[in-house]
Amino acid sequence: MRKIKKGDNVIVIAGRDKGKRGDVKAIVDGMHLLVAGVNQVRKHTKPNPMQNQPGGIVTKEVPIHVSNVAIWNPITKKADRIGFRTLQDGRKVRIYKSNGEMIGV
Questions:
Q1: Cα–Cα–Cα angle for 79, 26, 86, nearest 5°?
Q2: What is the pLDDT of residues 41-54, one digit of tens each?
Q3: Is residue 97 part of a domain?
């Protein structure tokens, strides 16, 4: 089970976008995430008439390393760490380390 999943609200804790919050759009590989509105770069693209693509400067989001983000705890209004707990019915759930509340249940 992953600590951070698609759809989680995270906050950036390191890098040039430190302090920004956004939702996880996708998990690129085991160690990189795409977060909405975070780590945006400007890319100069050539026009491609075969794909009906105009040229110009395109702003896009690039993956950010999972160690540079932390999950946002809405109860404490701070970044938090994630732990795991097994319930009595055998399900494994994620919890906030600071207060023990379950995530997304």
A1: 60
A2: 999 999 999 999 89
A3: no
pLDDT of residue 104: 74
* 87 in a structural domain: no
Written as one letter, the residue type at 40 is Q
pTM of the model: 0.84
Q: Which helix (H) or strand (E) holds 102?
A: none
CATH number of the domain residue 18 falls in: 2.30.30.30
Bridge partners (DSSP) listed for residue 101 = none
Question: 1-10 long-range contacts, Cβ below 8 Å, gap at least 24?
Answer: 1/84, 1/92, 1/94, 2/27, 3/71, 3/82, 3/94, 4/33, 4/66, 4/69, 4/71, 4/82, 8/71, 8/103, 8/104, 9/71, 9/72, 9/74, 10/35, 10/69, 10/70, 10/71, 10/72
